Amino acid sequence: MKTKPTQETGLSEQGIGEAIKEGAITKQYLADPKTIVSALNRLRSTEITSYLQYKQHGYMAVSLLSPGLKTEFEAHALQELQHADTLANRIQQLGGVPVFDLQELAGKAASIGVHPEQGTTLVQMVGENLMLERRQVEAYSALIREIGDKDLVTRQLLLDILQTTEQHASELADFLKRSSETRG
Asked: Are 148 and 155 in contact (CB under 8 A)?
């Protein structure tokens, strides 16, 4: 038995079917979902690259007898992974598929200048992490400007991640500044 549109919702079976197909995308959504999904997958790849780099540096920091820095690297790694998950959820909401292929992830991260590095000293590791965070700040800022008011949810999500990323960059820069002051 087919249902007729109700006065309360005004939705027919066809309307409900379209709503299911389009998910979160309504007529008020002004961005191109495919473009946004592609950009979010690129940013997500940088978060996964960052996670791996921070984890590697955390393991190395233990061998270099720096437990405080190991803890900091591990905290940053966890936040990078949370960012990747947040981006994956938004990609799915927009009808896309988060990239999981390792080669594709590496290629997408490299396309915006993010490459995993493995320093041999604490100062090198912190410097590499700082440069990675700065590239992410640039990439997030550019996408936020590009989105403008066309996708408010994605924009807010990116602003939240950008805030944490800038905090990471600031903490790493402060460490390098203190380190150079004690050496010089």
From this structure: yes
Instruction: Provide the CA 112 distance to its chain's centre, in angstroms.
Output: 13
Q: What torsion, rounded to 10 degrees, do the Cα atoms 72, 77, 78, 84 define?
A: 150
CA distance 34 to 32: 6
Do 50 and 136 meet the contact criterion of CB atoms below 8 Å apart? Answer: yes
> What digits encode the pLDDT tens for the residues 11-40?
677 666 665 556 567 677 788 999 999 999
> What is d(CA 104, CA 112) in angstroms, rounded to the nearest whole number?
13
Domain 33-183 coded CATH 1.20.1260.10: yes
Task: For residue range 131-155, list pLDDT tens digits in order.
Answer: 999 999 999 999 999 999 999 999 9
pTM value?
A: 0.83
* Residue 103, number of CB atoms within 10 A of its CB: 8
Q: 126 near 172, Cβ under 8 Å?
A: yes
Q: Which long-range contacts (CB under 8 A, 24 or more apart) does 134-143 make?
A: 134/169, 135/46, 136/43, 136/46, 136/47, 136/50, 136/165, 137/162, 137/165, 137/166, 137/169, 139/42, 139/43, 139/46, 139/112, 139/114, 140/43, 140/165, 143/39, 143/43
For residue 106 the two structure tokens come to: 């590496």
